[in-house]
Amino acid sequence: MRLPNLAAFPTVPPQRGDADDQSHGVHLPRSVGGPLLQVARRLLMAVAVMAAAVVIVYFDRSGYRDNVTGEPVGFLDSLYYVTVSLSTTGYGDIVPFTDKARLLTTFLITPLRILFLIILVGTTLEVLTERTREQWRLAHWRKILRDHTVIVGFGTKGRSAAETLMSTGLPQEQIVVVDPSKGVVAAANAAGYAGVVGDATRSDVLVRARADRARQIVISTQRDDTAVLVALTARQLSKSVKIVASVREEENVPLLKQSGADSVITSASAVGRLLGLSMISPSSGAVMEDLIQQGTGLSLRERPVTKAEAGRSPREVEDLVVSVIRGHRLLPFDHPDAARLELTDRLVVIHRIRAEEESHPPAVDPEAGTPRRGPGSWRIPRR
């Protein structure tokens, strides 16, 4: 599909609404069980309170009197007395008449009645306070969120991008998913990601994801024209954010770059080249597949030059150097200008991941030099 010229797309200025508008459609992950599990837990607590009260009354049944039949109080009478006493004030047909029974009713049965009512009313109170607590969680999340990664489109490509980023040490709390499907965002929430439901071509949707304060945006939409509009909108919100986009057709790459994308990946061509390479040389295809799969085997990564490596040749570095980044230039490892490494250079290397690195991702962000938490380490607690 060939896209029209960029001038054909209207530009919409960013719109910033109030806090309620910016929180609409935002869904945060929760580390709690489902509603049925919560109801079952409350019912078990209520039954436990009733059982404790029945045991207390039954063991002191001689201190109670049945005013209707005059017969001794049995187990069923104890259960009946506890049921009407915990849920109401009682009917007066079974009453305590000894001092011990009255003390037990005062100091044990009455507190259990209060606890029983609290458990039953707790569900109603939770429903009434849920909106307030959710608004507080969203406000707190929006306040602390910055320098994060926004992934637009959480299909196969988006999920793979998120997993790759987390395998390099990016905390899961620093990833926000944007997708027009509520089901997709719900699945992302279940996996621990914060999500925004909406059309990412609209500036207000990206503002909800705090794209204006993001460090990088990954565009992995299903359509190339959608990717162009998302890139345009994201670039309007932030001139410094790094935008990486995926397109299906190679002829749309220049249009994506013109719309503001820093890097464009042609998914169909990349898969086709990998298929052809695997046909010609299955071993070469296996190596490329190993490089693509982050976290195990061979890994392609970018890192700074260490002090020990400064002044040396790329061939003398422990890792296999593929390219040298000097300023804004990307130099092959055998380029004459890259014959001696400088301390300000960055290297693109092929690195074999050791066993300890597979289970323990980098603890320090190589860009910012700040400690990182491992993937999946974050949940916004429910209080």
From TrEMBL:
<keyword id="KW-0472">Membrane</keyword>
<feature type="region of interest" description="Disordered">
    <location>
        <begin position="358"/>
        <end position="383"/>
    </location>
</feature>
<protein>
    <submittedName>
        <fullName>Voltage-gated potassium channel</fullName>
    </submittedName>
</protein>
<feature type="transmembrane region" description="Helical">
    <location>
        <begin position="39"/>
        <end position="59"/>
    </location>
</feature>
<dbReference type="Pfam" id="PF02254">
    <property type="entry name" value="TrkA_N"/>
</dbReference>
<keyword id="KW-0406">Ion transport</keyword>
<dbReference type="GO" id="GO:0006813">
    <property type="term" value="P:potassium ion transport"/>
</dbReference>
<dbReference type="InterPro" id="IPR013099">
    <property type="entry name" value="K_chnl_dom"/>
</dbReference>
<dbReference type="InterPro" id="IPR036291">
    <property type="entry name" value="NAD(P)-bd_dom_sf"/>
</dbReference>
<dbReference type="InterPro" id="IPR050721">
    <property type="entry name" value="Trk_Ktr_HKT_K-transport"/>
</dbReference>
<keyword id="KW-1133">Transmembrane helix</keyword>
<keyword id="KW-0812">Transmembrane</keyword>
<feature type="transmembrane region" description="Helical">
    <location>
        <begin position="103"/>
        <end position="128"/>
    </location>
</feature>
<feature type="domain" description="RCK N-terminal">
    <location>
        <begin position="146"/>
        <end position="266"/>
    </location>
</feature>
<dbReference type="InterPro" id="IPR003148">
    <property type="entry name" value="RCK_N"/>
</dbReference>
<dbReference type="Pfam" id="PF07885">
    <property type="entry name" value="Ion_trans_2"/>
</dbReference>
<keyword id="KW-0813">Transport</keyword>
<dbReference type="GO" id="GO:0034220">
    <property type="term" value="P:monoatomic ion transmembrane transport"/>
</dbReference>
<dbReference type="GO" id="GO:0005886">
    <property type="term" value="C:plasma membrane"/>
</dbReference>
<keyword id="KW-0407">Ion channel</keyword>
